[in-house]
Structure formats: C-alpha cells, structure tokens
Amino acid sequence: MSDEPLHWQVFISLALACVFRRGENLALEANKIDRDNKQVTIDQTIGGGKEWKPKIKDKKSSPSTRIVSVPESVIVLLKKLYISNSRMGNKASHLWKEKSHNWIFCNEDGTHFYPTTPTTWWRRFTKRKGIRHIRLHDLRHTSATFLINQGVHAKIISERLGHADIRTTMDTYGHALRSAEQEAAGKIDTLFTRKEKAD
C-alpha cells in the first residue's frame, strides 16, 4: 500500500484498523479526530441518495454513533493527510467549493469523494496487484475476525463495529466466536493436564 496515494492508504487503514464502513470513512471530518487521545468520533455517514446524488446522514441519534480508539500509526497517517489537504486547499483556494465541512477524503475542490469512488479504486487496486478480490466492505469482516482470534471481547468488537446490539455481532461472527471459544477451552484443558502431570 505504501506506493498508493496517501488518501487510499488512510482509507484502507481505517477500514482495517477501525472497522469503519465506507460511508463512515467518507464522512470523516478533521474536527472528528482527537490526535491527543488517539480517537475518532463517528456520527455521520455518506451514502447514495436520490438520482445517485450523495447524501450526508446524521448518525448522532443512532446506536452506531461511537468514539473509536485508533492505532498510533493510523493517527500519524491521518495527520499527514490533513496537512496534505490543507496545502492543497491553500494552493487551490480559488477552486475550493466546500464551505461547511473539512472532509478528510476530499477532491481538489474540497468536496467529499463520491460514494462509489473507493469501491472503484479498490477493484482496480486488487486487479493491478493480482490480489484475490473481496468486497471493500469485507475488510470489516476480516478485521473483526482477526480481533476475535486475538481474544478481544465480543462486546468491544461490537462497539467498534457500531452494531446496535451485541446479538448482531454474535449472529454475524458466530462461527469465528465459537472457534475462539473452543480454542479457549483447549487452553484451559492444558492447565488441567499440566496439573495432573505435576500431581
């Protein structure tokens, strides 16, 4: 990914490290990033509206509104992208159309990316790199499954995913959770085996 444009490096990093949805990534603004505490607030999303016109949706009253902890490496990338965007805005101030928002993922005129832009880039990226194609949204599943296998509690994973109810997480990732639970049982069994040998 290091040879890809910075905004795509950040986009994929957030999808994997923070399990953000495509629309949540697209709606991310600079004032939602707390670099000191390494957190990002998710309270809006961008999706397709009528006649394919992008629509900004407020999520403040939604259960999927959340504050997510972000790895230091991703915070560094976000800072770099913010600086890059600021420089772009200063150089092309006469072209800047966006007056109300400071989008992290923006075009040269400050407007946010179109909802299908990341999907199109991802499809071309996987083809160019010879990577087996999966949906962009499936990066969330990959990350969630990884967290389960690392032993992270299902409640924490559910909160990071922005699920309204932990049952949604259990239903979606039940197989991975059962596998992790079986592995835990195996580790506990090892403790008993060691004790018997010691006795």
Automatic annotation (TrEMBL):
GO terms for molecular function: DNA binding. Pfam families: Phage_integrase. The keyword Nuclease does not apply. One of its GO terms (biological process) is DNA recombination. InterPro entries: DNA_brk_join_enz, Integrase-like_cat_sf, Integrase_catalytic, Tyrosine_recombinase_XerCD. Residues 1-187 form the Tyr recombinase domain. Keywords: DNA recombination. This is Site-specific integrase. It comes from Halobacillus salinus.
